[in-house]
Write a structure and sequence with these properties.
The chain is mainly α. It contains 7 helices and no strands. GO terms for molecular function: terpene synthase activity.
Length: 238
């Protein structure tokens, strides 16, 4: 047999190869994207609409300066929608204004939801929310300490635990909060932003988790819909 007659590797016909089928379902999009033609006019129109909506939201943030509660909830909505990168300057200004506000001037004594929201937003944006005892001697810190406080937005004079008003004389959270599901959810989120040594926030997290877990059977929509995706509601089955 000559070299020209020797069989070569890989010369087998592809018809002889049997491939197993994975039985994949047909693509629901079909060939839509293969035949898709982009409309530049439609894109430009969408971009214009987006810019108009952004300007409208900026206007809403500015108009809410005189209404801290509205301002807080607007910023919280933008965060949950993942849109804060469009309004970084406006949100920073809003947080500075909230930090300078007296919380007792615009949040009711029994409003757990907005109190916890106020605390969480300030912590998330790098401000020292009013919680716990100050580590600096009151009115006896030097200019350097003052500069450090300004740099890190820390209020060295604040010794107020804003959650104290929701506790009884024994230092435990009041029993009437059990039915405030919206407030407990807000407290649950805020308690995750505790700093080292803030043991009371750890207690708040435990309290909120227990109350929310026990109340799952009596929740109404839409809060009940969050049960499957909220960590504090997760239970293990045997």
């Amino acid at each position: 047999m000559t070299s020209s007659e020797e069989p070569s590797m890989g010369s087998a016909s592809t018809d002889d190869i049997v491939r197993k089928s994975a039985n994949y379902h047909p693509n629901i999009w079909g060939d839509y994207f293969q035949n898709y033609t982009f409309d530049d006019v439609a894109l430009h129109t969408c971009e214009q609409e987006v810019e108009m909506m952004k300007e409208e939201v900026k206007k809403m943030l500015k108009e809410a300066k005189s209404e801290p509660l509205k301002q807080m909830n607007l910023v919280d909505s933008l965060q949950r929608l993942g849109l804060t990168y469009h309004f970084e300057q406006e949100i920073e200004e809003a947080m500075q204004e909230l930090h300078n506000h007296d919380i007792n001037a615009f949040i009711k004594t029994d409003d757990l939801y907005n109190t916890a929201l106020y605390f969480r937003l300030l912590r998330q944006h790098g401000y020292n929310a009013p919680y716990g005892m100050c580590i600096l001697p009151k009115k006896k810190f030097c200019d350097l300490c003052n500069l450090i406080c300004q740099k890190f937005k820390y209020n060295a004079f604040n010794e107020t635990d804003i959650f104290n008003k929701f506790k009884d004389e024994k230092g435990t959270f009041k029993s009437n909060l059990v039915g405030d599901i919206k407030g407990l959810l807000s407290l649950y989120e805020a308690a995750h932003l505790s700093l080292h040594g803030e043991d009371n926030l750890d207690d708040a997290l435990t309290y909120a988790t227990i109350c929310l877990t026990r109340s799952t059977e009596n929740l109404s929509y839409p809060i009940s819909h969050l049960q499957a995706s909220t960590a504090c509601f997760r239970t293990t089955t045997p």
